[in-house]
Amino acid sequence: MKGVEKAIDKEFPQSTKRVCAKDLYSNFKMKWGGPAFHDLFWRAANATSAHAFNKAIDEINRLSRPAADYLLSVNQQWSKHEFDPAITFDHNTSNFVESFNAVINELREKPVLTFMEGIRNHFMEKFAERMAVADSLQMHEPTPYAKEILDYNIHGSNQCMVIQAGGGEFEVLEGTKPHPLDILKGTCLCGGWQVTGIPCKHAYRAFT
């Protein structure tokens, strides 16, 4: 869609562009398929730090130099570690667009005002459903989805040792790897907190 690309460049000159990692992998696996390449590709795509990304690329390079060169030649963002932390939006696939398309499927042929009103009604219903769930919870009780994330991050498979340095600074040891973090600045070496805006598992350990 060349016209759309030109319009975005003109109207939003500071915007960054991402390529859907799922689409990128579809092209990648045509030459470099198999479970090893699959696992390493998604490790690279979901890496929230340059260190984790480079480790995955190094593993791919050991299997195939051309495969690593192909991924490094992609000039659009596809790995999470590249994302601007000011945006705090870590999606690297277009799945959320597909979900939106499913919502508007029955509205596509409607006049534009009816189309927009249909979207508004849909989200009002969603907000009402979530407000009903919120009203049923006790004060400070997390939603079932949030509780699942909390349980994983606090009691997950990798136990971490926490060292408090003072002033909101901590060092969280995951195995032998240290992760310095600052809960006042909202930063962690793993990069997960910065990319999403949501505290990473190391931060949760420091909190608890």
Question: Helices, strands, pairings?
Answer:
Elements: H1 2-11, H2 21-28, H3 35-45, H4 50-63, H5 65-72, H6 95-103, H7 112-136, H8 144-155, E1 160-166, E2 169-174, E3 177-182, E4 187-188, H9 192-196, H10 201-207
Detailed description of the structure:
By secondary structure, the chain is α+β, with helices and mostly antiparallel strands. It folds into three domains: 81 residues, no CATH class; 33 residues; 51 residues, no CATH class. 52% of the residues lie in helices and 10% in strands. It has a four-stranded antiparallel sheet. Helix 4 packs antiparallel against helix 5 and helix 8 crosses helix 10. The radius of gyration is 21 Å and the shape is globular.
State the main characteristics:
single chain; 208 residues; alpha+beta; 3 domains; four-stranded antiparallel beta sheet; 10 helices; 4 strands; 10% strand
Low-confidence runs of at least 5 consecutive residues: none
Helix content: 40-55%
* Overall residue-averaged pLDDT value: 91
For the sheet with most strands, the description reads: 4 strands, antiparallel
| End-to-end CA span | 49 Å
Portion of residues in beta strands equals 5-15%
Count every helix, treating DSSP H or I runs of 4 or more residues as helices. 10
The figure for the number of domains is 3
- Give the SSE string: HHHHHHHHEEEEHH
